[in-house]
């Protein structure tokens, strides 16, 4: 695909934001996706409130953001430490807010299999707290992070929003429940959330131990430190890897969408499919350009419980109703993100023995 620079993103996000003067609430703003949203919003003249309990987000992400802001931009970021499981914290967080970008939650299929109760408390209970208080506050838009895992055992490709199967993990079940609640709020209250089904996001400030396409930072870390990489299955499992700036675009377009485009779910992806074997070769090749030579072959192990074999998105609905057009494919995203990964993951506390 042709990759457009950020300055020429579809529908000109900078122009759309120049017409906004309200407060944006980003829950989970100290995390991977949330911090990238805050960075873009602040640098485009917006006022942002960040709600995070730092369970999976990091103070270092906020410090890195502030280090790149001017004094005036830094004044436009309000930090609020709090937990979405607290109704009082949610009530305070939405006060005076125009747009909510709800990214907070506990990701990861393996974590949800180990501890389904906490995943439910955060992802379902916390989501409903945010949804209800946003409705009561009368916010202008509510956009939330869903997941491609909601497609479950639905075998057809590409994945189309209205065609889902049975969820294959507690994590997937929590995201599907979020979507059901959002649909219910649309019909019961006329409050129209938009859900974004992320497909394997990657990019700067991604936690190697986090939920979103963690295979990329983990494999890069292993290649930097020349440790073993193991692959669950035969390596022909495929994913629609999506650079985080595509998700930033989708969130902003969704928040500023027309009423007719609200109250539904959209895929956020590139619309392609890459096998783990191909990803392994791509990362190894790109690291050579940075002077890192990884010579080990991957170790193949049994398939992992709860994993989906293939995943690829149909992004036509987001394109047609939101004006979404991914500006980065996998290769372009890796090239842009790799220097950050190498700098951060070269630290001595990061070597990992990893599998995907």
Key terms:
alpha/beta; Rossmann fold; 14 strands; 41% helix
What would a concise description of this structure say?
It is built from 13 helices and 14 strands. By secondary structure, it is of the alpha/beta class.
Structure report:
By secondary structure, the chain is of the alpha/beta class. It has a single domain, classed as 3-Layer(aba) Sandwich (Rossmann fold). 41% of the residues lie in helices and 15% in strands. It has helices spanning 13-18, 32-42, 59-67, 71-75, 87-93, 109-114, 116-137, 170-189, 215-225, 244-255, 276-288, 316-322, 330-345; strands at residues 23-27, 47-52, 77-81, 97-102, 141-147, 194-198, 201-202, 229-232, 238-239, 242-243, 265-268, 274-275, 299-301, 354-355. A seven-stranded parallel β-sheet has the order 3-2-1-4-5-6-11, with helices on both faces. A three-stranded parallel β-sheet has the order 13-8-14, covered by helices on one side. Strands 7-10 form a two-stranded parallel sheet. Strand 1 (23-27), helix 2 and strand 2 form a beta-alpha-beta unit. Helix 7 (116-137) runs parallel beside helix 8 (170-189). Residues 1-8 and 350-356 have low confidence and may be disordered.
Question: Which SSEs are present, and which pair or pack?
Answer:
Elements: H1 13-18, E1 23-27, H2 32-42, E2 47-52, H3 59-67, H4 71-75, E3 77-81, H5 87-93, E4 97-102, H6 109-114, H7 116-137, E5 141-147, H8 170-189, E6 194-198, E7 201-202, H9 215-225, E8 229-232, E9 238-239, E10 242-243, H10 244-255, E11 265-268, E12 274-275, H11 276-288, E13 299-301, H12 316-322, H13 330-345, E14 354-355
Parallel strand pairs: 1-2, 1-4, 2-3, 4-5, 5-6, 6-11, 7-10, 8-13, 8-14
Antiparallel strand pairs: 9-12
Helix pairs in contact: 2-10, 7-8, 9-11, 11-13
